Amino acid sequence: MSEEFAQTTLAMPPIEELYMEPKRKTGKLALIIVLSVVGVLLVAAIASFFGARWYYQDKTYPGVQFAGASVSGQTRDQLESTVQDAIEQTKIVISDTDGVSATASLANLGVTVDVDATVDDLMNAKRDGDVLAALGSVNPFVHHQVGLSAKTNNLDMSTYVAQQFVSEDERAVPSTIAYNGDAHTFQAVEGRGGRSPKTNKVNDAIKQAISMPGSTVKALVTYEDVGMPISVDAANQAANDANVRLNAKIVFNNGQGKAFEIPVDSIASFIKTDGDVEQGVITLNYDEDAITSYVEQEVPNHLNQQKVSQEDAVDDSGTVLATVVKGQNGVTVKNVDNLVPQVVQALQSGQGATMQVEGDVQQFDVVQKKSEYRIVVDLSSQTATVYKGNDQVKQFLVCTGTPGKHSTDPGTYYIYLKYNVQDMTGLNDDGSRYLSKGVKWVGYFHGGEGFHTASWNSYGIAHGDPKNYGSHGCVNMYEQDAKWIYDNCTEGTIVQVVGTEPDGPVR
After folding, report:
1. Which of 117, 399, 455, 458 is 20 to 30 A from 52 in CA distance terms?
2. Helix, strand, or coil here: 107?
3. CA 63, CA 146: separation in Å to the nearest integer?
């Protein structure tokens, strides 16, 4: 072997090294393929997860169960129907050892179901939680059982069972309270001792029916002889507590000067009793459905108000002489359901409350109106002068109110009410009542003060002598003069009372 050939042979790598690089490349390729597949699957899973979350955003999630069945994919309206059906189908069969039995609905047994809250529970099932819970939320194999949102009035339940299983003359009756609409108070109603069914098994059956509605549950009752299940003293205390609630005012206002108070009779309708006959206690609770119905109807009725444009009477220069129509902002109340928990809280505390109602407010506008006529009643000269602009149109002789107690009040007013004929009555200084029948051409401008015919006071008008022949505050006029003002001066006509009443006749 030549030296050159030997050197070449010694420089060649071992045979195993010649085949190692292709093996590494094959392994990397396989890993890339595996990771790619995993990535694709992961992307698909994430897309599927978010797609499912989007699809079920207004529906119940997969795996949500109610009344022993899946309600996956149901909307709120569908769930309401499902819940109502389950409530109607739920029955509790109560029996005793003598073979007497009764089939009761949840309502019979004093159970109040909040359908809206139950639907909320169904819609929210599987929506909250950590990341793992979120991943499981759309998994139909992860189940979540939802029951009814309900509460039981134990006093109503025990009363119903007693009525079904014990004759009236033998039955133990707990003392309670009742509302006396004539006296507007709650009063105690005395009970009595007697035979009473034990209802602990019924309570257990109710709890089972609430957790799994739509089924029939059985309960067995036994009996015992008891004294008065709830004492008169306990009922008197409950009546006193209820009357405290009646006397604590609950007031709503719309923030624009308008308010109303819930009447006592309505508050009484909100107050319900509950109790535990075994413990001998009676408690108060509050009917939120009744409160909701009341505020939804009565709050808008009392506190909505129309916008009223303010009308200002002005003179030729635009100076406001008087506000003929006072402006009022329009109000449309809203979100009245937010008042319900506030009313409940006020009843629970027994302190009452004044509540601001939310509302949309429309600001009133101001309209200026130029009064065609302006009447100046001069107390000093005992005249009434009618102006059109600054031009005198008419002047009439008058006799105003008696100085002192019955003075015609100085100030700027406007005619706000008119009668072509009216019977007038009031009190004399000695307390006796006067009656002037058939008074003609009346135009009131300030409270009970106004222009009118005074046929009985021709002398006082002729001489302008209010001290000796004055009225109770009105402006006495001859009939033809009062009729002119009635015919020509509309409601809104400005009336300015100026000057000082004289000590004697001015004419």
Report:
1. 117
2. coil
3. 11
Instruction: For residue 423, give the H/E element and its range.
Output: strand 417-427
Query: DSSP letter string over 185-254?
Result: EEEEE--B-EEEEE-HHHHHHHHHHHHSTTSEEEEEEEEEEES-SS-HHHHHHHHHHHHHHHHS-EEEE-
Count of alpha carbons within 13 Å of 127, Cβ hemisphere only? 15
Q: Give pLDDT tens digits for 169-200.
A: 999 999 999 999 999 999 999 999 999 999 99
Read off the pLDDT of residues 12-63 as tens digits, 9 standing for 90 and up. Answer: 444 444 444 555 556 676 666 666 665 555 554 455 445 555 667 889 999 9
Q: How far apart are CA 424 and CA 483, in angstroms?
A: 17
Q: State how far Cα 365 lies from the chain centre.
A: 29
HSE-CB at 161 with a 13 A cutoff on CA atoms is 29
Tokens describing residue 370: 């130029």
- Biggest CA-to-CA distance, the chain: 169
Sign of CA dihedral 396, 401, 407, 413: negative
Q: Which residue type, as a one-letter code, is found at position 293? A: S
Q: Identify residue 117 by its one-letter amino acid code.
A: A
Determine the Cα–Cα distance for residues 88 and 392; give it in Å rounded to an integer.
83
Query: What pTM, to 2 d.p., does this model score?
Result: 0.67
- The 8-class DSSP code of residue 59 comes to S
Residue 78, burial from CB neighbour count under 10 angstroms (0-12, 13-18, 19+)? middle
Tens of pLDDT, residues 356-385 = 999 999 999 999 988 789 999 999 999 999
Query: Distances in Å between the alpha carbon of 154 and those of 195, 332, 491?
Result: 18, 41, 64
